[in-house]
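Honest question from a wet-lab person: if I give you the sequences of every part of a complex, can you actually get the arrangement of the whole thing, not just the pieces? Trying it with mine:
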Amino acid sequence: MCGTCGCGSDNNGPVILKPGEHKHSHTEHHHDGHTHSHNDHHHEGHTHTHDLSHDHKHKILEIEQDILQNNQVLAARNRGYFEAKNIFALNMVSSPGSGKTSILERTLADLKETIPFYVIEGDQQTLNDANRIDALNIPVIQINTGKGCHLESDMVYEAVKRLNIEDNAILMIENVGNLVCPSMFDLGESKRVVIISTTEGEDKPIKYPDMFHTSDICIINKIDLLPYVNIDIEKLKNYALQVNPNLQFFEISATTGEGMDEWYKWLKKNMI
Amino acid sequence: MHELSIALGIVKIAEDETAKANAKKVTKIELIIGELSGVEIESLNFVWQSAIKDSVLEFSEKEIIIIKGKGKCIDCDTEFDMEFIYDTCPKCNSNFKGILQGKELRVKALEVI
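Yes, you can. This is the full assembly:
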């Protein structure tokens, strides 16, 4: 990994696995048709002097190119694929431990007889989440980002190629647990869903505004814990609406099932 | 810390454009970064050296042009400076606004030889 930052490098880049598959050498996976821009990453600190000598060979290239363009181009490609196949794709984002995987488990268990679901799990390490989804007999792919702190559209592109998603389905993409970095990276999703739990504190939306700003839906999870925690849900919602006045809320408990029906109604409505 | 991804994205753009122009290396790169873009300039500077090592940018000078955040209230049309993405309209207090500038994240120009 990069000694200073923690993003993936050649030896620690993303690995895409199905439950039961083994992690081969990273190099092998890099030749698996996967391309990304994390190559040639080095660790040594480096000092140099700027070569400012100007001579007649200098040329100015006015390129005006968006830095995230690569990610956006592939995200658009994903989005076109999803739209053509009527796949409703959700990018689930939150801090670690807010209950993304538990919400998925409950939703899949309750709706899998009526809606075809597919899941992409993003974590830095382990197949644990994919195994939890696999236990429900739902097709799932795990992306291990190594030291990477977010999913990017090329990883989703590669994962989707291996999922063989049928038409008229829901794809749940569980992003790496991180309330900062994933906000900048469009995956091609139909909607972005940010999850916050009642144990997290009501000012999170203004502490991490970018994520709430770019999301369409806000799920407030663990409402069964409300009697035991010191949180004002209305205040939380007001903070969130201050960041993004268009947010739509669902208050749920993935543990008790409370509030899940509204969420299911919304999912079904978007399937049409 | 997504700034390394951003830095590597910049390196990729510089590599591609330098090759297209049949140039050898970049002597100066100009970046445009908005204050509401989600990129911390300090973090970007922190990862910069390791990102550009062995690339066409390795010995380049980097100039960052910072764009201040500006919004326009949807309810009362007031234009105002934004420090944070959740800033409300100073006149009517509305949360509904369009962001006029500050989300920029671009490579503006490269000076190559």
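Two things worth pointing out. The beta strands of chain A are 15-17, 59-66, 87-94, 117-123, 140-144, 169-174, 191-197, 217-221, 248-251. The first strand of chain A starts at residue 15 and ends at 17.
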